[in-house]
């Protein structure tokens, strides 16, 4: 599903066949989840493929490495170029791109000396589907920011996400909603949360969540559309009394939330601020880049 006999990946500066590439089973990343990754989307536009927010994603990859002491010497420009080349080699346009920085063999709990980078891509439809989501508040909370670097996209953090999503699905819901360790609203397992009340949007402030690139884009779009947004610490009760809500993320894009623990939001999704933002987002990602200089 993710690759076939002709798929190519970028591995440490070279393009190699996906089914002929391998990794060392003693990698520190495999044993301890000590690696970092990104999730990026590319879109077909009138002027060819556009890797959306490519610079922001590779800057975050670099920042994630710095935050957890993983050495990383690629520049954003090199990796953006490699991504465009990768998509071309795989004949992909509308695609999901997954860069992963992983460590050399090391069974000690020490910083790595050497790392590898791989970038792969495949066609991936809307990650959470296109129907509004039925959420449940997870029994798992997001990791405390003093336990990990919550703002870094570290492989091991996603065990928390996998546990939350599996629990939600096992209980018959589409997806989980996680609180922070103080009981305030945090985020989804792979998406940020917004909710609407009397025309104003609310979203958890940075600090206990991944600073989503889609979240930042939604904030920019809301500003352009004259929608007021407040960022703060909000309780599940505040969400319960909201008019509507949505998740946003690179893979999920912008997707409405129908209910949380079977409490339905009263507003029809088509009349919400979220729907307006979904339309603006869908349009923005397919706008062609005018010049190559906007690539980085
Ligand atoms: N929160 C978490 C935990 C995530 O994994 C993601 C997906 N990267 C997001 C939020 C949304 O981030 P972005 O918009 O940068 O994809």
UniProtKB/TrEMBL annotation:
Signal peptide: none annotated. Keywords: Amino-acid biosynthesis, Aminotransferase, Branched-chain amino acid biosynthesis, Pyridoxal phosphate, Transferase. It catalyses: L-isoleucine + 2-oxoglutarate = (S)-3-methyl-2-oxopentanoate + L-glutamate; L-valine + 2-oxoglutarate = 3-methyl-2-oxobutanoate + L-glutamate; L-leucine + 2-oxoglutarate = 4-methyl-2-oxopentanoate + L-glutamate. Its cofactor is pyridoxal 5'-phosphate. InterPro entries: Aminotrans_IV (IPR001544), Aminotransferase-like (IPR036038), B_amino_transI (IPR005785), BCAT-like_C (IPR043132), BCAT-like_N (IPR043131), Class-IV_PLP-Dep_Aminotrnsfr (IPR050571). Pathway: Amino-acid biosynthesis; L-leucine biosynthesis; L-leucine from 3-methyl-2-oxobutanoate: step 4/4; Amino-acid biosynthesis; L-valine biosynthesis; L-valine from pyruvate: step 4/4; Amino-acid biosynthesis; L-isoleucine biosynthesis; L-isoleucine from 2-oxobutanoate: step 4/4. GO terms for molecular function: L-isoleucine-2-oxoglutarate transaminase activity; L-leucine-2-oxoglutarate transaminase activity; L-valine-2-oxoglutarate transaminase activity. SUPFAM superfamilies: D-aminoacid aminotransferase-like PLP-dependent enzymes (SSF56752). It comes from the Bacteria. GO terms for biological process: isoleucine biosynthetic process; L-leucine biosynthetic process; L-valine biosynthetic process. Its EC number is 2.6.1.42. Belongs to the class-IV pyridoxal-phosphate-dependent aminotransferase family. Acts on leucine, isoleucine and valine. NCBIfam families: ilvE_I, PRK06606.1. This is Branched-chain-amino-acid aminotransferase. It comes from Flavobacterium limnosediminis JC2902.
